[in-house]
Design goal:
The complex is a heterodimer. By secondary structure, chain A is mainly α. Chain A contains five helices and no strands. Chain A has one domain: Growth Hormone, Chain: A. In chain A, helix 2 packs antiparallel against helix 4 and helix 2 packs antiparallel against helix 5. The longest helix of chain A is centred in the first third of the chain and has 34 residues. The relative contact order of chain A is 0.20. By secondary structure, chain B is mainly beta. Among the domains of chain B are: about 90 residues, Immunoglobulin-like (Sandwich); about 100 residues, Immunoglobulin-like; about 100 residues, Immunoglobulin-like (Sandwich), CATH 2.60.40. In chain B, a hairpin with a 2-residue loop joins strand 20 and strand 21. Chain B starts with about 20 loop residues before the first helix and ends in a 25-residue tail after the last helix. The chains are: A mainly alpha, B mainly beta. The interface between A and B is large, with 43 and 40 residues. Chain A: Keywords: Cytokine, Secreted. Chain A: One of its GO terms (biological process) is cell surface receptor signaling pathway. Chain A: It is found in: Secreted.
């Protein structure tokens, strides 16, 4: 029955169905943002290794994958999880990244004070990943699949009264690790949102 | 004072490691969580050395790691494997390295000296800072824009190549009193420059100097003493207009306005004009336009587009005796001379006021006029030589010039009828 003949559809029913296009638009928008940040994260990593010197930029460079407080690599089984669960893990990682990027920015401010573009990229990355994290949380909320429970305070934000300084090389490795994690998680988020975006498998 | 060129002896500056934030350890989490980097340690950590020095380093594997041994360890420096003959085992858990005649660091964040296990995994790293102490900065020059600010530029000593991050700090103080101040806005007009935007005194000298510091030492420039009023520059003259002078095919008129910021002070301002033909890169400069705001360019090519620029030197502000500093050139303004069928003259200069005949353009015009007269006015004895003789006579009889204006002797009948006007 068409609208012209007096459809069973009525405006009330229409308005209750309208959140779906809005959600789709939000997912699409967040997916686009994640794609853009993936590109920026690749550029950041390239710029970072240039300023640290070889072997950081060499193919096959594989420093020890030091554990970083509050953040680890995506688990091997991540892609096999349900999409909402994947997005929850993405959101948690994205929330942990900004303080780590801030730490790296401060370290590089001492090691490479003239590398203005690198410092600016690190600053922008912290801000952009915060925005992406908030957007993913909004998608989760719209799906009725918000994160469970409060997140722990990031350890990087609390300056501990430790007595030893770790050295320049570990500082370089830390930044390499954080930039690598940033790239992994934004590209992971892009892939996971792609599952939900219109035209995606979901 | 900074050390001179380094000798071959191993020297490590007695400086603490770079102050990294303490949160680094917290961020890294548990230091020995099954990773490679903390299963060994390199000593010294992050040393600072003079170019040409030697370095003795060790990589010690932690004894509590299963199978930990120095057997098979090797070193890389900036990603390049070092020859095995530079290494030797000190004991079962320690590998030593001897480097001689070190070159300057490849990057300012330090050269990466890394200790590897036999399988290539990274066990530990240390960053070497190899360079030179800074030399004395020199050649400080400063200028004030409209007496409101001060910008200074300098040349780093030894052309700046210390291979280490070197910090330059511009300091200034009032000569007779006051505390040292530090400039805060760097790199405003190049890598070695600083801008002081406000709170500057006039009529009293400042002392200005530059301090250079890096991990190996520091150096200070000579002190420059100046009064702001002696180094004033201003904005380029605005509203530059170039126009034709009636139908005169070899002249253009240039007018401009005194720069507004110093308009009330520019009693002795100098101006300079430069102009070029549209297709050329060669500028001709008209100097010493003095305190006018207009000028006539003469001796130009007819039917040609010219680009013109003007700049101002505000010397003599508040009685300053110094030369003053030229402003930037104004934006180019273009105009074209009227076309002519006659071949035009070459270069020119600013025509002086009052029409006093100058040598080049007026003589050419007079020559053309005489040629025309010979054709059309039955003046068979007309010649340029006659004109020169007349000018010589005019100079000799200076007293009678005003009385005999334009009158020649009877022996020179038919010559030009008077001084060119």
């Amino acid at each position: 029955m068409s609208r012209r003949e007096g459809s069973l559809e009525d405006p009330q029913a229409d308005s209750s169905a309208s959140p779906l296009p809005h959600l789709e638009a939000k997912i699409q928008q967040t997916h686009s943002l994640a794609r853009l940040l993936t590109k920026y994260a690749e550029q950041l990593l390239q710029e970072y290794v240039q300023h640290q010197g070889d072997p950081f930029g060499l193919p096959g460079f594989s420093p020890p994958r030091l554990p970083v407080a509050d953040l680890s690599d995506p688990a091997p089984g991540h892609a096999g999880l349900p999409v909402p669960e994947r997005l929850r893990l993405d959101a948690a990682a994205l929330a942990a990244l900004p303080p780590l990027l801030d730490v790296v920015r401060r370290l590089q401010g001492e090691l490479n004070p003239r590398a203005l573009r690198l410092l600016r990229r690190l600053e922008d990355a912290a801000r952009q990943v915060r925005a992406l994290g908030a957007a993913v949380e909004a998608v989760l909320a719209a799906l009725g699949a918000e994160s469970r429970g409060p997140r722990p305070e990031p350890a990087a934000a609390a300056v501990a009264a430790s007595t030893a300084s770790a050295g320049v090389f570990p500082a370089k490795v830390l930044g390499f690790r954080v930039c690598g994690l940033y790239l992994e998680w934004v590209s992971r988020t892009e892939a996971d949102l792609g599952q939900l975006a219109p035209g995606g498998p979901a | 004072m900074p050390a001179g060129r380094p000798g071959p002896a191993a020297q490590s500056a007695r400086r603490p490691p770079p102050p990294l934030p303490l949160l680094l350890l917290c961020v890294l989490g548990a230091p020995r969580a099954g990773s490679g980097a903390d299963t060994a340690v390199i000593s010294p950590q992050d040393p600072t050395l003079l170019i040409g020095s030697s370095l003795q380093a060790t990589c010690s594997v932690h004894g509590d790691t299963p199978g930990a041994t120095a057997e098979g360890l090797y070193w890389t420096l900036n990603g390049r494997r070092l020859p095995p003959e530079l290494s030797r085992m000190l004991n079962a858990s320690t590998m030593a390295l001897a480097l001689a005649n070190l070159n300057g660091s490849r990057q300012q964040s330090g050269d990466n000296l890394v200790c590897h296990a036999r399988d290539g995994s990274i066990l530990a790293g240390s960053c070497l800072y190899v360079g030179l102490p800074p030399e004395k900065p020199f050649n400080i020059s400063c200028w004030s824009r409209n007496m409101k600010d001060l910008t200074c530029r300098w040349t780093p000593g030894a052309h700046g190549e210390t291979f280490l991050h070197t910090n330059y700090s511009l300091k200034y103080k009032l000569r007779w009193y006051g505390q040292d101040n530090t400039c805060e806005e760097y790199h405003t007009v190049g890598p070695h420059s600083c801008h002081i935007p406000k709170d500057l005194a006039l009529f009293t000298p400042y002392e200005i100097w530059v301090e250079a510091t890096n991990r190996l030492g520091s150096a200070r420039s000579d002190v420059l003493t100046l009064d702001i009023l002696d180094v004033v520059t201003t904005d380029p003259p605005p509203d530059v207009h170039v126009s034709r002078v009636g139908g005169l095919e070899d002249q253009l008129s240039v007018r401009w306005v005194s720069p507004p910021a110093l308009k009330d002070f520019l009693f002795q301002a100098k101006y300079q004009i430069r102009y070029r033909v549209e297709d050329s890169v060669d500028w001709k400069v008209v100097d010493d336009v003095s305190n006018q705001t207009s000028c006539r360019l003469a001796g130009l090519k007819p039917g040609t587009v010219y680009f013109v620029q003007v700049r101002c030197n505000p010397f003599g502000i508040y009685g300053s005796k110094k030369a003053g500093i030229w402003s930037e050139w104004s934006h180019p303004t273009a105009a074209s001379t009227p076309r002519s069928e006659r071949p035009g003259p070459g270069g020119g200069a600013c025509e002086p006021r009052g029409g006093e005949p100058s040598s080049g353009p007026v003589r050419r015009e007079l020559k053309q006029f005489l040629g025309w007269l010979k054709k059309h006015a039955y003046c068979s004895n007309l010649s340029f030589r006659l004109y020169d003789q007349w000018r010589a006579w005019m100079q000799k009889s200076h007293k009678t010039r005003n009385q005999d204006e334009g009158i020649l002797s009877s022996g020179r009948r038919g010559a030009a009828r008077g001084p060119a006007r």
